[in-house]
Amino acid sequence: MSPRKGLYKAYLVRLWWVGTGEDRVCRASIEDAETHERTGFAGVEGMFAFLSQQAEGMARSEEGDGQTQPDAEGSDGAEVKWSRRDD
Questions:
Q1: How far apart are CA 52 and CA 57, in angstroms?
Q2: Could you tell me the pLDDT band of residue 47, with boundaries at 50, 70 and 90?
Q3: Are 14 and 74 in contact (CB under 8 A)?
Q4: The Cα angle at residue 64 between residues 59 and 70, in degrees rounded to 5
Q5: How far apart are CA 64 and CA 83, in angstroms?
Q6: Strand, coil or helix: what is 36?
Q7: Rounded to an integer, what distance in angstroms lies between the CA atom of residue 4 and that of residue 64?
Q8: 22 in helix, strand or coil?
Q9: pTM
Q10: CA geometry: angle 26, 76, 84, nearest 5 deg
Q11: Residues 6 or more apart in contact with residue 49 via CB below 8 angstroms
C-alpha cells in the first residue's frame, strides 16, 4: 500500500556539533528526500518547529498536494535554504 500523495513526506536529518566546551552547540539540517532541497538550522528547536509547520500545512492542505510552505521561520530564526544537490 502506497501513501496518498500529499499525506507523506520523507526527510533526511543531519545533526552535528560545533564549538568546544560550554560554547558547543548542535546544528541541524534536513533534506527533502524527493526534491533534495536542504534547509539548515542553528539548533534542533528550529528544525522541530519547521517540521511541525510542515505537518500542520499538510493537514490543512485542501488539495492534499503536500507542497504547503511553513508560515514562518524556525523558532530560532536561523533557517537557511541551500540549493538542490545533484549527485
A1: 9
A2: very high
A3: no
A4: 55
A5: 25
A6: coil
A7: 9
A8: helix
A9: 0.63
A10: 75
A11: 74, 75, 76
Other residues' Cβ atoms within 10 Å of the Cβ of residue 30: 18
C-alpha dihedral sign at 63, 34, 81, 31:
positive
Q: In what order do the strands lie in the sheet with 11-18?
A: 11-18, 25-32, 38-41, 80-82
CA separation for the pair 79, 77 (Å, rounded)? 6
The label of the residue with cell 542553528 reads 42
What's the one-letter identity of residue 67? Q
Percent of the chain whose pLDDT exceeds 90: 52
pLDDT confidence tier of residue 60, bands split at 50, 70 and 90: confident
Residues in the chain: 87
Instruction: Report the amino acid identity of residue 32.
Output: D
Judged against a pLDDT cut of 70, whether residue 82 lies above it is answered with: no
